């Protein structure tokens, strides 16, 4: 198999939402390449293909991601049915691969150098983008009735700054760095904890579970964080939570990206 530009998709970002997009597109026969920062800060590590940048291939729902360096390794991974992940936040690989589709899935809540002129079909996720100006389509990422809506003219809902509601909890689910320092967790994703349990340390400071439930997200150990940085979250559903598969939100957004790609490609061709 060689690269087919008409089926090639580059996804900027390889966290849990970007992974939901990648899984859906890969399963539909697209050739998916992902890019990330030098030091990614995903916390849903068990469902983030970008985790492969921390030393070994990562598998999510039967799909394997590998760290690739350069176009040759990208082609090798695609030929093996894998998803290559590059350290390339500036999207320099576009010059070599020239994909038909480009998706910004870093969810920075603002536009960090993305343009509709970077590829024939450009799609962005969440607030910070205006369809028709920054990209060809933007996907609503705010939970609720419009989650996954494809917008071809205008912006999504503005950033609420409020984490998604799970079992009645929003801000309470998240734990953050109490100070600047190096983060080390004392629990693992999937562990059940009680409110007040120690879940991590940042420098000499302890971080406590804000509520009881299952640890669903944790920043990778050894990363430098600043005060207030999100380092993990608790799912209040406890043992009934699923930390091993793509979330309902990521799957819905993945379907919306597929819809936008098909619509825009059909419209062009």
TrEMBL record:
Listed InterPro entries: Se-dep_Mo_hydrolase_YqeB
Q: Which NCBIfam families match?
A: matur_yqeB
Q: What is this protein called?
A: Xanthine dehydrogenase accessory factor
- The source organism is Reinekea marinisedimentorum
